[in-house]
Each structure stands twice: as structure tokens, then as C-alpha cells.
Write a structure and sequence with these properties.
By secondary structure, this protein is of the alpha/beta class. The protein has a single domain, classed as Rossmann fold (3-Layer(aba) Sandwich), CATH 3.40.50.720. A 7-stranded parallel β-sheet has the order 3-2-1-4-5-6-7, sandwiched between helices. The longest helix has 29 residues.
Length: 280
């Protein structure tokens, strides 16, 4: 597998930081050509500069279907093929749903679901014509099991898992692969920046980092997630669940959902009680 990535062309969205930057770095280190895309133009430039001559910065809002299609067509035209698309860009909202505004829900749907759909609709037809390619969508353990206090985020990640696992069976007829990365808690800037994204002053939000640690154990590093994700892509795994304890959680929810639910209720009670002085 040492030469698996050498010479391949890959687009990574959300590549300015976090998992996206770690994926882009891992790809560049393995000899792939990487288009590091992010809505943060300066961040994309910094990321590409740090990755060497095999990386190219791209400014992209994944909510813009036309811009996504233009990027895919340009890369395919300039590089000859697109071997892998990492639909990785995403945002996070935390808190109780009854306190959310419609605008918050619209935004997380637009970025986390429509962004993945836009990338898929841009790249998949091209890959079908190539009779090769791999679409890799960043989902979450929250797309495989309940994630209270992250309900809208979990909603979007369940959608990503559903698209990925279903499209996988269609795509294999054309030589195209589809996978979903499903990490548990990850130490990423998303925990600081995304949790408050679009929030309104005075609305309570949990400490997401603390909540995820209580619910899923110590947070993974982005480097660990990227390393295991790239290994999973090499092996063409449908669901790349990271780390091992997350696989146990997903299995437990399938087999004994009541047990997982009971644990989840305890975590919610503690987080709400600690932060609001109210365990109700």
C-alpha cells in the first residue's frame, strides 16, 4: 500500500484546519496531488503552502453547487482525472433543540448535507465516465448512534451515512468506491469555532469538548483520524469508524440500544446539571 496514493489527484474540502488539513497533509506526504479547498481563502493558502508543491489552494463554499462543479471540472481538465474527493467540510451546533433558530438549522443542513450532495453531484458523474474514483464523506459516530445535545449535527451525519452506504452499491457497478469516515470525538478547532456558529447571545451551549469526552472517551487527534481514514480508504471500507472504542459503541447501539440510551441519559443529566444547575 506504500504506493497506493502516489500520483493520485485528490480534492479535500474543509482543508484549512482540523481533519481536512490532516487528510491533505497525509495525502501530500504519500505522494498525492492535493487541491486543498476551504471557504477560508487565507487558511487554504496557508494549508497548501505548508504541504509543499503537490498542494494547490482553492477557495470554495461547498454550499455553492456551481462553484463545486467548476472546481471538479477544472481539476479533471488540468490533472486528467479525479481519483478521490474528500467531502470533509462541516460545522457543528450544540445545545438543546428547543432553543435553536431556523437559521441555525438551515445553515448546518446547507453545509453538512448539501455540501456533500454538491460535491457528490459534481464528481460522481465524472467518476462514472472514468470508471474509477473514490468519494469519501466525513460523517461521524453521531451518524451511527444518538448524539443528544448535538441533535442537528447528528441529523446531518445520519444523512451523510445514508447517502454514502446507499450510493456505494450503485457506484460499484461503475468501478467507483464510496466510503464514510465516522470518528468519535476529535480534538479540532470545530469544537471551539463551530459550536457557537450562528448562535444567539444568551443561548446556553454545553462545553462540547467536555461533553464528548464524557460520552465517548478521550478525544482523538486529527492526525490519528487522518491516518486511520487513509488506511480505510486504501482498504475500501464502507464505514471507517475511528477509534476502536467507537466501533464498539456503534455495535452496542445496534445490539442493545437501551443500554446506550441509559448511558446517554446519564451524560446529558450531568452536562446540563453541571452547566445549568438543573439536571432536568
Amino acid at each position: 500500500m506504500d504506493t497506493f496514493w502516489k500520483g493520485k489527484n485528490a480534492i479535500v474540502t474543509g482543508a484549512a484546519s482540523g481533519i481536512g488539513l490532516a487528510l491533505a497533509a497525509g495525502l501530500a506526504e504519500r505522494g498525492a496531488r492535493v487541491w486543498a479547498a476551504d471557504i477560508d481563502a487565507a487558511g487554504a493558502e496557508r494549508a497548501a503552502a505548508s504541504l509543499g508543491s503537490n498542494a494547490h489552494p482553492v477557495t470554495l463554499d461547498v454550499r455553492d453547487a456551481a462553484a463545486f462543479r467548476e472546481l471538479v471540472e477544472r481539476v479533471a481538465r488540468d490533472a486528467g482525472t479525479i481519483d478521490v474527493l474528500f467531502n470533509n467540510a462541516g460545522i457543528l451546533h450544540a445545545g438543546e433543540v428547543h432553543e435553536f433558530e431556523k437559521e441555525q438549522c438551515d445553515r448546518i443542513i446547507d453545509v453538512n448535507i448539501r455540501g456533500v450532495v454538491n460535491g457528490t453531484l459534481a464528481a460522481y458523474p465524472l467518476m462514472v465516465r472514468q470508471r474509477s474514483g473514490h468519494i469519501v464523506n466525513t460523517a461521524s459516530l453521531a451518524g451511527l448512534a444518538p448524539a443528544p445535545l448535538l441533535s442537528t449535527y447528528a441529523m446531518t451525519k445520519h444523512a451523510v451515512v445514508g447517502l454514502s452506504t446507499s450510493l456505494r452499491y450503485e457506484a460499484e457497478r461503475y468501478g467507483v468506491r464510496v466510503s464514510a469516515i465516522c470518528p468519535a470525538g476529535v480534538e479540532t478547532p470545530l469544537l471551539d469555532e463551530g459550536a457557537a456558529s450562528g448562535s444567539h447571545p444568551g443561548r446556553w451551549q454545553p462545553d462540547v469538548r467536555n461533553y464528548l469526552t464524557l460520552a465517548a472517551g478521550p478525544l482523538c487527534t486529527v492526525d490519528k483520524v487522518a491516518r486511520e481514514a487513509l488506511r480505510g480508504v486504501e482498504r475500501n471500507r464502507a464505514l471507517i469508524i475511528i477509534p476502536a472504542r467507537a466501533r464498539l459503541t456503534a455495535l452496542a447501539y445496534r445490539l442493545v440500544p437501551g443500554l446506550v440510551g441509559a448511558f446517554g441519559r446519564q451524560v446529558i443529566a450531568k452536562v446540563i446539571g453541571d452547566n445549568r444547575g438543573d439536571a432536568s
